[in-house]
Write a structure and sequence with these properties.
The chain has 535 residues and is of the alpha+beta class. It contains 19 helices and 19 strands. It has two domains: 135 residues, no CATH class; 283 residues, no CATH class. α9 packs parallel to α13 and α13 packs across α14. The chain is globular.
């Protein structure tokens, strides 16, 4: 083959898999493109985007991985020291202590427990019917952690949780019939690991034992269903966003955000807030110990990120605490929670923050707003009722999908509020600069949330699809996983779209026909000026 033809053929093959990395100049352009956003304008949304775009940026090559991990573990240990103080204080607190003016701690806890008892309902055997996520466990790495794989082979379990395996089999006899969960291995607890968070620090999470995780997800699913009866929908973040917007308009609602909330749920806090039978069950299926760099640590926290019920449990506790403050202090208005994103009446802010601190939680002052024109909750940011939600570059742009993602997010930001696409004339030029890095046959997308096709008002041609590693899943495990999703038809699906294969390798495919309605268009596109190819 002629040398030129070989080179051309190789480039086509590389492009077909979309593995060609961005040049340094293109990566730098993605990093810095918002610098020209304001262009002499003073609108809040543009200034805010410039401030926030790189606020979560994590350049893993600037700080050694070992240093980021060490910083995360130091922070985790400091949080554990705070949890120990919370446990000691709550256990020794006089029940006659006034946690609020003329409200004893005893009376306050009585109301909180009534709320949690009503939400949880009776503790019945079917709560053990849980599920598996696709995350790593103590027995399986993430690359081997598909739910179907977790139903077969060795399954880890703590001593405290092992007594519930027979109950799982009784409630789901198919699992026992096929010997699933038969090969059990007793372990001491969870294993701490870290993932990149910011340039100088990682985030800590824990890999749970398999059976504990299954049981924890049963509680999480149960709590998620029950909270909906009380107006708390953990499958829908838009509720808190709408409330945040209202608060930014009329100052009636405050938005609260906590620091390290999941890691700050102290054991004594859960014991004080939950009915005793529910506390004992949750205490049995959690991991009491965590392995940190080869050393086992007895935890002061009740559950961590990685536990299958942590998110739902913290939502329940914050809801009950806020409802109690509202009741005893006679505050009128909405109380809404989504994890540690809390919305309350603005007048309740001081009392609410005091109670949260009494139970061991720390507020993030940069993300708490009780007055003024700005509110933030569940990823929605509002200024005088205007959606100013920014987007973020969280890692260095390395591949084509990174460019598409940023360009689509810029386009969504431009059309979040009517007229914004024309307020700053530079917005279209910046979008076009990013778009021109994308091959023209990948234009014409309709979904802002994907990074495999550029959103633009052009006909579909091609899209990228990720190429995952072919793997054989155990047939028995696949059947058990299917059965697991169907034995309880009342189970709510978890929020969010299924994640694509965890790989950067892609190939092009013909795009399916999407929605016929064109996406929002810049004026320049409507007029046909520099709008890219119409093919």
């Amino acid at each position: 083959m002629h040398k030129h033809n070989r080179k051309h053929h190789r480039r086509r093959e590389v492009w077909r898999d979309a593995n060609l990395k961005l040049s340094e100049s293109d990566a730098a352009a993605v990093y810095s493109f918002v610098e020209g956003l304001v262009d002499g304008q003073e609108d809040f949304a543009s200034l805010y985007l410039r401030t926030e775009y790189l606020s979560k940026y994590c350049a893993e090559n600037l700080v050694p991985a070992a240093d980021r991990r060490s910083a995360a573990i130091r922070k985790w240990k400091l949080t554990e020291q705070a949890n120990a103080r919370t446990n000691e204080r709550l256990r020794g607190l006089d029940r006659g202590y006034n946690i609020l003016p003329r409200v004893t701690f005893y009376a306050f806890l009585g109301f909180v427990q009534r709320i949690t008892r009503d939400v949880l309902g009776p503790l019945t055997d079917e709560v053990v019917l849980g599920s598996f996520s696709g995350g790593a466990s103590t027995s399986r790495r993430r690359t081997e952690s598909r739910p179907a794989q977790k139903f077969t082979g060795v399954a880890d379990v703590t001593q405290e949780a092992s007594i519930f395996v027979d109950l799982i089999h009784r409630e789901a006899p198919l699992l026992q019939q096929h010997g699933i969960f038969y090969s059990l291995r007793e372990v001491e607890g969870a294993v701490l690991f870290t993932v990149p968070k910011k340039t100088d620090i990682d985030r800590c999470a824990c890999k749970e034992p398999d059976i504990n995780m299954f049981l924890q997800k049963g509680v999480g699913n149960h709590l998620r269903r029950r909270l909906r009866r009380f107006g708390i929908n953990l499958n829908d973040q838009s509720v808190n966003r709408r409330l945040a917007r209202r608060g930014s308009l009329d100052d009636s609602l405050a938005t609260l955000d906590l620091t390290a909330a999941s890691d700050s749920i102290a054991r004594s806090c859960v014991e004080a807030c939950l009915p005793h039978d529910w506390f004992l069950y949750l205490d049995s299926i959690r991991s009491h110990n965590v392995q940190v760099d080869g050393t086992w640590v007895r935890t002061e926290m009740f559950s961590s990120m990685g536990n299958g019920f942590t998110f739902e449990l913290e939502s329940l506790i914050f809801y009950a605490l806020m409802r109690a403050v509202s009741y005893f202090r006679n505050y009128q208005g909405v109380v809404s929670v989504y994890g540690d994103d809390i919305v309350i009446p603005s007048g309740m802010y001081d009392d609410a923050t005091w109670v949260l601190k009494e139970f061991g939680f720390s507020l993030n002052p940069e993300k708490c707003f009780a007055s003024g024109p700005f509110r933030e909750s569940c990823g929605g940011h509002y200024h005088y009722g205007v959606d100013v939600t920014p987007f973020y570059l969280k890692r260095p742009a390395a591949r084509l999908t990174d460019v598409i993602r940023v360009a689509n997010q810029l386009r969504r930001w431009a059309f979040a509020e009517f007229g914004r696409e024309h307020i700053v004339p530079a917005t279209y030029n910046m979008w076009l600069k990013l778009a021109q890095m994308v091959p023209q046959d990948l234009w014409g997308g309709r979904d802002y949330a994907v990074d495999t096709q550029l959103v633009s008002p052009h006909p579909h041609r091609y899209r990228l699809v990720r190429v995952g590693k072919e793997e054989e899943l155990p047939e028995l495990g696949m059947y058990a996983a299917w059965h697991n999703t169907n034995w309880n038809r009342t189970q709510d699906p978890e929020p969010g779209r299924p994640s694509e294969s965890d790989t950067s390798r892609c190939r092009k495919r013909r795009a399916k026909l999407g929605a016929p309605t064109l996406p929002d268009q810049f004026l320049e596109e409507i007029l046909g000026l520099d709008a890219g190819p119409v093919v």
